From TrEMBL:
Periplasmic binding protein domain: residues covered: 42-294
Any Pfam family the entry gives: Peripla_BP_4
Signal peptide: 1-25
Protein name per its UniProtKB record: Periplasmic binding protein domain-containing protein
SUPFAM superfamilies per record: Periplasmic binding protein-like I (SSF53822)
Key words, A-Z: Signal
InterPro entries in alphabetical order: Peripla_BP_I, SBP_2_dom
GO molecular function: carbohydrate binding
The keyword Signal is annotated on this UniProt entry: yes
Main location: other
Subcellular locations according to the entry: Cell envelope
Organism: Lucifera butyrica
Length: 328
């Protein structure tokens, strides 16, 4: 009897050991946790991050990232003239294998080779703010500068009698954005039977615009208004006009914080506002769609709006909120 009992115990121990060996310990069991999908990574490279305009583009881009669940990186050199620095930043984003790129090119001719590198790496590229003749872009998101220029010309036409003469200050010779704004204004002036006294380049610079405007005044050219293709030039022109005690309407372009302050103070008549926040948002949204293989519109016009004394306070509130500080 004892012998039978001993055999039974041994048999049970053996079975127990076999079961333990087959099952293994709970600690050694492999875990199959659900992998969290990576966020779509969008690299945004702007012309610079040292101005309020580009900070507004950045704000819009990051808003899109938060709302759409994207990993958005916004970078740019310290100056719009640092073309080499911007190209290096684009190359770095390509090396990091982002899912899509949003680019505001500082110098189109220099940018095309690096954009072709992105194409070779199968990284879709959306252009924001500045369009360039590059067929491989997914989309251009920004202001239709010609229509913005027409807005400025039509605004002046409402304030001036037919036959009035207008001075136009343009940007760097060959700058596509500035040239297109000027051409839009010229067409509107012609359609409204206004004349153009002169078109002078002032390199988008306040100090140069001051000098150019002083020279125009000293040359005794007659004019009843001024259009400047950006606000920096408009503000420079105002200084020259004030010094000469000349009071004529001046219209700028961009609705920068300095320009809005000048409008509120009664120095600048108006400025054509671009929607920089909308540009940033829609360009990132378009890049996301491209990265997912979804269709994207080839051109997305973010629109313009003329800002004057009637709506300047609303614009100031909008920009102050986006920048996180009062711009007054």
């Amino acid at each position: 009897m004892k012998k039978g009992f001993t055999v039974l115990v041994c048999l049970l121990v053996t079975i127990s050991l076999l079961l333990t060996g087959c099952g293994g310990s709970q600690e050694n069991q492999p875990t199959h946790s659900k992998k969290v999908p990576e966020k779509t990574r969008i690299g945004v490279v702007v012309k610079a991050l040292n101005s309020d305009y580009w900070k507004l583009v950045e704000y819009g881009a990051k808003q899109a990232g938060e709302k759409l669940g994207l990993d958005v990186t916004v970078i740019g050199p310290n100056s719009e003239t640092d073309v080499t620095g911007q190209i290096a930043m684009i190359e770095d984003q390509i090396a990091k294998r982002v899912n899509a790129l949003v680019i505001a090119t500082s110098q189109p001719s220099s940018a095309i080779p690096v954009l072709n590198k992105a194409k070779s790496a199968k990284i879709p590229v959306v252009l924001v703010d500045t369009d360039i003749p590059w067929d491989s872009k997914v989309s251009y998101v920004g202001t239709e500068s010609f229509l913005g220029g027409k807005d400025a010309g039509n605004y002046l036409a409402k304030k001036l009698p037919k036959g009035s003469r207008v001075v136009i200050l343009g940007g760097n010779v060959g700058d596509p954005n500035m040239d297109t704004r000027v051409n839009g204004c010229k067409e509107a002036l012609k359609e409204n039977e206004l004349e153009i006294t002169t078109v002078q380049p002032a390199n988008s610079d306040r100090a140069m615009a001051l000098t150019v405007m002083e020279n125009i005044i000293q040359s005794k050219k007659e004019f009843e208004a001024v259009f400047a293709a950006n606000d920096e030039m408009a503000l420079g022109a105002i200084k020259a006009l004030e010094a000469a005690n000349i009071h004529v309407p001046v219209v700028g372009f961009d609705a920068s914080p300095d320009a809005l302050r000048a409008i509120k103070a009664g120095q600048l008549d108006a400025s054509v506002a671009q929607d920089a926040i909308k540009m940033g948002y829609l360009s990132v949204e378009s890049a996301m769609k491209a990265a997912k293989g979804e269709p994207v519109e080839k051109r997305i016009n973010t629109g313009t709006k003329v800002i004057n004394k009637d709506n300047v306070d609303q614009k100031i509130d909008e920009l102050s909120k986006a920048l996180g500080r009062s711009i007054l």
